[in-house]
Amino acid sequence: MMLSRLRLYAPWFSDCRLMAAVVAAAAVIAALALRADTVSAQQTPLHLNPVIEKLAAGTPVFGILTSDLSRENARASGRLDTDYVFIDMEHSPLNMDSLANFVAAMSDKAYTLKTGNAQPRSALIARFPPYASDNAGWVVKQALDIGVMGIVFNTVNTKEQALAAVKHMRYPPWQGRPNTHKEPIGMRGWSPTGAVWAWGIDGEEYRRRADVWPLNPEGDLLASMIIETKEGVDNVDEVPGVSILSAAAGGDLSSSYGVPRDSPEVEAGMQRILKACLANNVICSITAFGKADIDRRLKEGWMMIRTRSGGPND
């Protein structure tokens, strides 16, 4: 359009070199406009956590579990076509240095350049040795400050345990942000240097995003509660303010009932967890292997599926 207009006005120019310069300038302006359109199309998404972005849109998510914190595994995991990577340190050594190195090595700059924003290909969530009843907030604080996007809490049995878990993940309320004032009120200490580096955003943007979704619709952190005892199943309708309720693979649930994993009692417990999720609009997670099993669980209403495991334990 701009070039056509210039040609209409060509008689006005007595110097051909001036005409050439104007045409060249127009080409530069057009190129800048195209670049601006491209940048506009690559704006930061509503959620940096890819799991939350999909779940908020009603799309199921799939992930893997690993306890291998090597740099090589981090790089390989970072390029898998999966929505999340579940780091298991409940049944392997608690090593925060290795977790920090894994977070750093999993970052794929080629993917960042391709997408044009800071959202990673997969969200990194982690599980640690303490039970929810241990109230080990220091583990949560250190893991979040390293830069993980979700915490998986073991053996959540009561409403009080779930409330404490969510509190440890949230910062105290912030003026002008009403979603941060919702109960349970946060108590996380402020020092997100590692997380800011891992997420690729500044401190204030991290403060805005580092809250539990969907309690805070703007949040990018996942609070996942594993229900793995009969007591937890009996109290499952009372678990508040969480992102995910998980039946995991049923190993500990099996132990709690004192029956093999494939027993009807274990499946009935899982179905009760699912029923509570559907009734309370909470995401429900389970382990499933093979297409038939995955299809069955999706049809039932499970939205977060762990499809592979790094080991036989859960």
Name its key features:
314 residues; alpha/beta; TIM Barrel; globular
CATH topology of the largest domain: TIM Barrel
Structural class: alpha/beta
Count the beta strands: 8
Total domain modules: 2
N-to-C terminal Cα separation, in Å? 63 Å
Helix and strand pattern:
HHHEHEHHEHEHHHEHEHHEHE
What gyration radius follows from the Cα positions, in whole Å?
24 Å
Query: Which CATH top level class of the largest domain fits?
Result: Alpha Beta
Number of helices: 14
* Lateral arrangement of strands in the main beta sheet: 1-2-3-4-5-6-7-8
Mean pLDDT: 85
> What is the CATH architecture assignment of the largest domain?
Alpha-Beta Barrel
Largest beta-sheet details: 8 strands, parallel, barrel
Uncertain stretches of 5 or more adjacent residues: 1-42, 310-314
Q: Shape, please? A: globular
Under CATH, the homologous superfamily of the largest domain reads: Phosphoenolpyruvate-binding domains
Helix content: 40-55%
